[in-house]
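Project outcomes to date are best conveyed with an example. Our students and postdoctoral researchers have been running inverse folding experiments weekly, and each run begins with a structure described purely in tokens. The record below, which covers 526 residues, was selected by the lab manager from last quarter's runs and is presented without edits.
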């Protein structure tokens, strides 16, 4: 190899291939690998062929979990050529079962040995894969399986077991093939990251992928895709759209124009705050489009959450199309779509995962837009976007803002959306956020908001009967938005906040607090 070719090779990130079999948390695998400075690519099992494998030249491979049974006739399978590449393989949950099944082991679905949620595994044999585990006699893991391996493939040995998984961790250490029945990628497996780190050590990665390298690659990819064409960017003032806008501006300069659409579903005074915040910090062309009457009129009488999202998605694009026609040669529409939006809206990479809900900027978009879509953050999680924001030197006023959904308060008003209900909700939300800041809790919470219920309740205020709306307060902690837990406010906060809302907001006589985690709930109500 010449010095020049070696330099070119060293400049390319080593690749770990994640093969997606339809798990809702496949992207979490890639996310953990990024935290460990390893570049990974996710491809659905249908795409795996010799050409792709040659192109990627993966240094290691991970099989994701999935919702199907390996024993089903049409369940996802993989070409056995994968086992002849001579690279380490780690199978997770469905991936472990597939690994065993294709290499001659057996899977049992009839025996009721399913495990869902927290479980504990015991070590049977030491292995490099489990270095740093088993300080005690057991380790906590997160299981989600119905089937289980009942007979191992040849040359595999048991490393650990659980109550209902006799082969919870297995290995053929000569070939560096490993399988785990649990999910090391989720936060509910406390030492899962250590296991993935051990797998990377076994695989010999250089650990050269960083947010700085993503930033540089993103700039190159944007320039390559857009060329000299002009772009409009959907700006909401949130961290996702702000990072998207600044990243695009770094890449294409004055060929970018941002459009901030006020759909009448923003928080109280938010349009003033966003415009001031953006104009005070950046000199990027910015158009303010007040389209509140249009959006609210089209939502009249609509109660279905999915219809709301799709209507809002279509209207956003219509507004962007209308403004693009007034401008010269606009070819692209940019938006700050993140991976959690994608994973809940559509089957990942056209794979077999299940749709949770349509996000207005993914499943809610019309098929024919007339504009090419560019989403540079599509494969990132929220915390990674914030890291990218730091690379771009965005002010903390952008980076630390709580997430706010594109459909805005429309999905925080179950049932029909009306101007009256939006104004009530805006006032509730203003007090709730003000209280959180007053108690110095804003930066401890991932997201906080209010929901106005479509039902009314009887109350007594000033010795008079009232029949007004009930509201829900929701605040959650999270890292990436894929899982979340409710924030544990103390009673003084809840009592103080409830009193303020009842006293200061006309039309509300009952305040509740949502203590549902994700899963089983989602963060937003609709």
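After processing, the design step wrote out the following sequence:
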């Amino acid at each position: 190899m010449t010095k020049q070719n070696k330099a070119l090779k060293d400049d390319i990130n080593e690749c770990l291939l994640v093969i997606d079999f339809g798990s809702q948390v496949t992207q979490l695998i890639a996310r953990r690998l990024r935290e460990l400075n390893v570049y990974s690519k996710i491809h659905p099992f249908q795409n795996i062929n010799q050409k792709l494998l040659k192109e990627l030249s993966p240094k290691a491979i991970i099989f994701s979990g999935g919702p199907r049974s390996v024993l089903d006739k049409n369940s996802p399978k993989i070409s056995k050529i994968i086992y002849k590449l001579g690279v380490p393989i780690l199978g997770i949950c469905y991936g472990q079962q597939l690994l065993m099944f294709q290499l001659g082991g057996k899977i049992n679905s009839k025996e009721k040995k399913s495990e869902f949620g927290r479980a504990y595994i015991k070590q049977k044999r030491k292995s490099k894969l489990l270095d740093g585990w088993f300080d005690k006699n057991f380790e906590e893991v997160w299981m989600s399986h119905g089937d289980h391996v009942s007979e191992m493939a040849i040359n595999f040995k048991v490393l650990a077991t659980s109550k209902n998984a006799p082969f919870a961790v297995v290995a053929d250490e000569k070939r560096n093939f490993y399988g785990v029945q649990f999910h090391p990628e989720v936060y509910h497996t406390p030492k899962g990251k250590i296991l993935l780190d051990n797998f990377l050590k076994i695989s010999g990665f250089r650990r050269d992928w960083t947010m700085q390298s993503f930033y540089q690659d993103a700039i190159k990819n944007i320039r390559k895709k857009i060329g000299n064409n002009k772009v409009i960017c959907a700006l909401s003032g949130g961290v996702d759209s702000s990072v998207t806008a600044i990243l695009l501006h770094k890449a294409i300069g004055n060929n970018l124009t941002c459009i901030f659409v006020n759909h009448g579903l923003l928080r109280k005074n938010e349009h003033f705050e966003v415009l001031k915040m953006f104009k005070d910090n950046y000199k990027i062309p910015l158009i303010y489009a007040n389209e509140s009457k249009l959006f609210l009129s089209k939502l009249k009488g609509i109660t279905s959450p999915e219809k709301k999202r799709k209507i809002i998605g279509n209207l956003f694009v219509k507004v962007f199309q209308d403004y693009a026609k007034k401008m010269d040669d606009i070819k692209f529409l940019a938006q700050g779509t993140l991976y959690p939006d994608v994973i809940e809206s559509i089957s990942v990479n056209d794979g077999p995962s299940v749709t949770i809900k349509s996000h207005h900027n993914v499943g809610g978009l019309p098929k024919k837009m007339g504009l090419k879509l560019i989403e540079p953050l599509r494969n990132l999680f929220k915390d990674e976007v914030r890291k990218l924001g730091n690379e771009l030197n965005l002010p903390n006023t952008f980076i630390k803002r709580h997430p706010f959904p594109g459909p805005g308060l429309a999905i925080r008003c179950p049932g029909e959306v009306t101007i009256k209900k939006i104004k009530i909700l805006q006032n509730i939300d203003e007090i709730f956020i003000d209280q959180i800041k007053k108690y110095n809790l804003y930066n401890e919470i991932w997201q906080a908001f209010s929901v106005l219920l479509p039902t009314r309740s009887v109350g007594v205020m000033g010795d008079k009967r009232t029949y007004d709306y009930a509201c829900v307060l929701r605040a959650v902690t999270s890292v990436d938005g894929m899982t979340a837990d409710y924030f544990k406010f103390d009673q003084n906060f809840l009592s103080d906040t409830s009193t303020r809302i009842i006293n200061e907001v006309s039309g509300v006589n009952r305040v509740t607090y949502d203590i549902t985690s994700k899963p089983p709930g989602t963060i937003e109500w609709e």
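The CA atoms of residues 24 and 353 lie 6 Å apart. Residues 1-11, 346-366 have pLDDT under 50 and may be disordered. The training component of this project remains on track.
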